[in-house]
Write a structure and sequence with these properties.
single chain, mainly alpha
Length: about 375
């Protein structure tokens, strides 16, 4: 660098000294001077001051570039006879200065990219923790228990760096929501199982009652049938005995008219046979009617027992459903009021996580003298 160039800085470039500067190789001293100024330092990227210093050095390179480029381009427009030389020199100078600026700024850019990736990684992991406590409608108790185990297994520690407290809150909040949902689901499934058991027991009792009534009716019918047969046999024997007595008396009284008596006896015997046959048919018809009446009464009693048991089971199921619906309405009502309180806290400037914690503590009556009116 000549003595004149040594005395000229980027701030001293003017129209008068431009012919001595914007020549082939004339801008290299400025490039080397700028490089020596910015490359001699090694700022500490672990400190904010160091990172700001790198940004400042890169900005100084850009300023020096503009301080040389702008006068040069003005000079170039005036020197129509040397456009190619000046343009080439300026292009190379600008390219090298841009490269130098990018080279100087690269550690800061690399650090910022790594920092952004690290923050995104922690935020993604926290969002994944929270995701386990969302969309819980219709999930079985077994699935909820799996989610709880997964969240409980999530490690906490120094690997979270400055996000450890937020990760701990996300884990704790997710576990509270999941455990509450698990308790509610277990209660619901237990109620459903109990309802099914009551229905099975009701059906079994109804079937047992039907069998018992049928057996009792069959026994009673058989008893009546045997009694009727015995009564018919006694009546037939009595009639036969009476006929023999009448026949003997008639023979004694009318011995002289034996032929007529024999004829009369034959007629009486025929009438007795017809009567006995009529009595037998009537007895069988009466027994059949009584059997049908008993069977009909048996069926009516069994049907009445089934209807009574069904009404008792339906009433028990309706009561369980009514209690369950009342609990669900109460829970929905409480969630709506809690959600309104949460939105009010957030609208008042409180962070969402803090607002959720505040609503939860108040709802659990852990804050003295403060309650939520449901």
């Amino acid at each position: 660098m000549s003595a004149q160039q040594q005395l000229i800085t980027v701030d001293d470039i003017s129209e008068e000294n431009a012919p001595a500067i914007y020549v082939l190789g004339g801008l290299k001293p400025f490039l080397e001077h700028t490089r020596s100024q910015v490359c001699g330092e090694v700022p500490d990227l672990t400190t904010r001051k160091g990172r700001e210093r790198i940004a400042s050095l890169a900005a100084e390179v850009s300023r020096s570039k503009k301080a040389v480029e702008n006068p040069g381009r003005d000079y170039l427009r005036r020197l129509k006879e040397m456009p190619k030389v000046v343009e080439t020199e300026l292009r190379e100078f600008v390219t090298e200065m841009d490269k130098l600026r990018d080279e100087v700024r690269k550690p800061l850019n690399d650090w910022q990219a790594a920092e952004d990736a690290r923050v995104d990684r922690h935020n993604s992991a926290i969002a994944h923790l929270k995701l386990n406590a969302q969309d819980l409608d219709g999930i079985t108790a077994e699935d909820l228990a799996d989610r709880i185990a997964k969240v409980e297994a999530a490690p906490l520690g120094q690997q979270w760096e400055e996000f450890e407290a937020e990760a701990a809150r996300a884990k704790d909040d997710s576990l509270k929501v999941l455990r509450t949902a698990l308790a509610a689901r277990q209660q619901y499934e237990a109620e459903q199982a109990e309802l099914a058991r009551l229905r099975r027991e009701a059906e079994e009792r109804a079937e047992q009652d039907r069998i018992r009534v049928a057996q009792e009716a069959a026994v009673e019918l058989e008893r009546q049938r045997v009694a009727q047969e015995q009564q018919a046999a006694r009546e037939a024997a009595a009639r036969r005995e009476q006929e023999l007595i009448d026949q003997a008396a008639a023979q004694e009284r009318e011995a002289e008219n034996q032929r007529l008596q024999l004829k009369l006896q034959a007629e009486q015997a025929e009438r007795a046979r017809i009567q006995a046959e009529a009595d037998r048919v009537a007895t069988e018809q009466r027994m059949e009617q009584e059997r049908q009446v008993a069977a009909r009464r048996q069926e009516e009693a069994a049907e009445q027992a089934r209807q009574d048991e069904r009404r008792r089971a339906d009433a028990a199921a309706a009561e369980i459903l009514h209690q369950q619906e009342a609990r669900e309405r109460d829970e929905a009502h409480r969630r709506s009021i809690n959600r309104s309180a949460l939105e009010a806290f957030i609208a008042g400037g409180m962070p969402e996580a803090c607002a959720k914690q505040a609503v939860t503590l108040i709802a659990q009556r852990k804050i003295p003298n403060i309650t939520i009116a449901y």
